[in-house]
Amino acid sequence: MPFSFFHLLFYITIIFSEVHAVHEQHFQHASKSESKSNVTLFVFGDSYVDTGNWRKSVGGSWKEPYGITFPGKPSGRFSDGRVLTDYIAMAAASYLGTRTPTAYQWRKGVKRSNLKYGMNFAYGGTGVLDTPVNQPNMTTQVDYFQRLIREKVYEKHDLNNSVAIVSVAGNDYAAYLARNTDDDLQANYSNASLKLPGFTKTIMKQLGINLERIQGLGVKRIAVTLIEPMGCVPVQAASSSYTNCSEVLNIGSKFHNQMLQQALKTLNDKTNSTVFVTLDLYNAFISALNKLTKRASASLGMKNPLKPCCEGKEKGNYCGSVDKSGTKQYSICENPDLSLFWDTVHPSQNGWRTIFSSLRSSLYKLIT
After folding, report:
1. Record's InterPro entries (predicted)?
2. Cβ atoms < 10 Å from Cβ of 11
């Protein structure tokens, strides 16, 4: 893949470990007699929840060193291991009787019986709206879902016991900033942010349409992630040598989240229900950052949590880049399991595990 395209993917994608680590007490009280078996999980969004939808021939997530922690080789996940989708499925497994859903791209290569657990329509680099990454945006992902229902891959009994996870919008903002600033993006974020409220409203309008479509197709509970603190991802923190987050971008994240919560309340009020709930990814990121910062300060082997584990050796290189002779042009930290971020945009498996620990109570509300 040409460097410019791959780097752009990573730049605009602003997007846990073992089962015992995610089985919080909320889930332990549920007996097998109380459990809901074969709950169908549908996933929409970007690389934070994508489990392998990019084609192997073009997807950087299918190349080394991605997947080195789990499953030991590239699996299409934008991390060294598991991502948010995996942890949601793992945590809910004993209660919901589900597992990580099949990636849409590979639906024809698995047994029909495996599809009962659901489908993952998420593609890394995509958004609510179109982004420079030529992959299906959220509207198209919902189209795919609707097509499977028309084809009776999923029928009424599947939808009656279904949950949808939606994690999207970070790429929309990154693409917007790239379009509306000069080459020196860091110096112009404040100017671009003046128009962000209007852009946020555009995102909310289309997101609302998509969410209502998912509900109209029969999904009973829909969880939408609040956007992460965009100023804390390494690609933004790099300008301060990974010492600080960009507060301008974090203010933008907070505004988006406020608008999203209002939009979901409006959708719930329409049907006098609580179909739509949020997963607070913003505060989960902040909590994980604070937790790992304290560990690093205590010299417990932790590294600076804002610094990525895998990064290019020189400017212009990125995690996974190689030269013409195939020589690696990136370096990897000694222990990815001590990091928060895997590359310049995406959390490591340890990062997702730590982030998810703050989301369990919200997940419990979703499935009970």
Report:
1. GDSL, SGNH_hydro_sf
2. 21
Question: Which residue type, as a one-letter code, is found at position 193?
Answer: S
> The domain spanning residue 94 has which CATH number?
3.40.50.1110
**The tokens of 191 are what?**
């100017």
Helix (H, G, I), strand (E, B) or coil at 240: helix
The secondary element (H helix, E strand) that includes residue 163 is strand 162-167
Q: How many CB atoms lie within 10 A of CB 107?
A: 18
The answer to whether 346 is a known catalytic residue is yes
Host H or E run for residue 236: helix 234-237
* Domain interval for residue 181: 3-367
List the pLDDT tens digit at each of the 368 positions of the chain. 333 333 333 332 322 222 233 333 333 343 333 344 567 899 999 999 999 999 998 889 999 999 999 999 999 999 999 999 999 988 877 666 678 899 999 999 988 888 989 999 999 999 999 999 999 999 999 999 999 999 999 999 999 989 999 999 999 999 998 887 533 334 444 454 557 788 999 999 999 999 999 999 999 999 999 999 999 999 999 989 999 999 989 999 999 999 999 999 999 999 899 999 999 999 999 999 999 888 877 766 667 899 999 999 988 889 999 999 999 999 999 999 999 999 999 999 999 999 999 887 666 666 55
Q: Which residue type, as a one-letter code, is found at position 73?
A: K
Q: How many domains does the chain have?
A: 1
110, 116 contact by CB (below 8 A)? no
Contact 120, 62 (CB under 8 A): no
Q: At 262, is the secondary structure helix, strand, or coil?
A: helix
* Catalytic choice (79, 193, 346, 358): 346
Which residue in the list 47, 246, 253, 321 is annotated as catalytic?
A: 47
pTM of the model: 0.86
343 is catalytic: yes
CB 42 within 8 A of CB 165: yes
Distance CA(368)–CA(365), nearest Å, equals: 6
Catalytic residue of the set 79, 246, 343, 358? 343
Contact 229, 341 (CB under 8 A): no
Measured between alpha carbons, how far is 273 from 277 in angstroms, rounded to an integer? 10
**Rounded alpha-carbon distances, angstroms, from residue 22 to 6, 285, 350, 354:** 33, 16, 12, 10
